[in-house]
Design a protein that fits this description.
- Helix content is about 80%, strand content about 0%.
- The protein is an all-alpha fold and about 240 residues long.
- The chain has a single domain, classed as Orthogonal Bundle (MetI-like fold), CATH 1.10.3720.
- Helix 8 packs antiparallel against helix 9.
- The longest helix is centred in the first third of the chain and has 38 residues.
- The termini are far apart.
Amino acid sequence: MQEFISAFGAKFYSAFIDGNRWQLYLGGIWVTIKLTAFAMLIGCVLGVLVASVRATYDLTEQNRRGFLLRLLNGAAKFYITVIRGTPLVVQLLIIYFVIFSNTRNQMAVAVIAFGVNSGAYVAEMVRGGIMSVDKGQMEAGRSLGLSYGTTMRLIIIPQAVKTILPALGNEFIALLKETSIVTVIGLRDLTKAAMLVGAKTYDYFLPYIAIALIYLLMVIILTWLLGKLERRLRSSER
């Protein structure tokens, strides 16, 4: 038992203390959180815009759909189909090595790639939420003299957000975990930090177990925060 404790202590020291390697983990956590937050922000903005186009097309009578609306809806459907139909890691590689091949700003490229990917999924969530709102809400807004855009922004979308919040939270959690693939472009996130430590110590057990626990802790905290937000929104409806 004493030998096991001694061996474990030596491995722990080598994986976290020696050479201030704990700083690699802290830096990786910061990169992961920053990447997730900015990508989700882009995904939400892009998703709401795409969902608004798709929902407007679906809610507009066929004989009143103009050419521009048809064009935008076709572009939105193409975007959603391509993004949801191809692996995220492939999209990341294409954006980094093909589209932005002249830049080495790995963080910016990763944020764009994850934001564009998340936007396609958020768009379908938001569209489903918009379509679930009673049509009378739109008619009531228009009868008050509000424009279509103002009615969507002030009446429809806020109600849709309450409906889709659980799904949106799951997307946020999935995005947090999916950021681990940025190691393919060399970005030093949490997973890359563990890989670097393992390469220096020739022992991957503790680094990988550590980042698994860190990811788990971040997901638990995020789930708890989303639960509090849901309860607050439900209480505001009473």
